[in-house]
UniProtKB/TrEMBL annotation:
InterPro entries: 2-oxoA_DH_lipoyl-BS, Biotin_lipoyl, GCV_H, GCV_H/Fam206, GCV_H_sub, Single_hybrid_motif. This is Glycine cleavage system H protein. Pfam families: GCV_H (PF01597). Binds 1 lipoyl cofactor covalently. Residues 50-130 form the Lipoyl-binding domain. It comes from the Eukaryota. GO terms for cellular component: glycine cleavage complex; mitochondrion. The modification N6-lipoyllysine is found at K89. Belongs to the GcvH family. Its cofactor is (R)-lipoate. Keywords: Lipoyl, Mitochondrion, Transit peptide.
Amino acid sequence: MALRMWASSTANALKISTAASNSAFVISPAFSLSRCFSTVLEGFKYANSHEWVKHDGPDHLGEVVFVELPEAGKPVTQGNSFGSVESVKATSDVNSPISGEVVEVNTKLSETPGLINTSPYEDGWMIKVKPSNPSELESLMGAKEYTKFCEEEDASH
């Protein structure tokens, strides 16, 4: 069964998403007006740093103008930065929700970084990652837990 993973990160509530295909995860951001996803879906697992995984099955940054991504073959580590996204408001690191090896990079983003805003779940994906430790998925939250986490986080800001 393929996995879909979508990650989000950064103090500016940069949203990252990932989708899996044949044991590789696609990472792609999504933005919302709150610190958490504007829509939280059932069947997903969420980390308290806003990464999320799906078995395949405060202020946002604004319009993305530049994306820096790793090359294929580079390792990524759960919770650590693998690239950055620059918007008209700020530059933010993008953290990997899982550990593994980058197997593909979305080259469309170098010419059209705005795909991250307009199509975060389809054309705006960032990287595909071959996971090195699939058990990391177990540390992520389901939709209900993530919704509660976001509500508590929003209330504290």
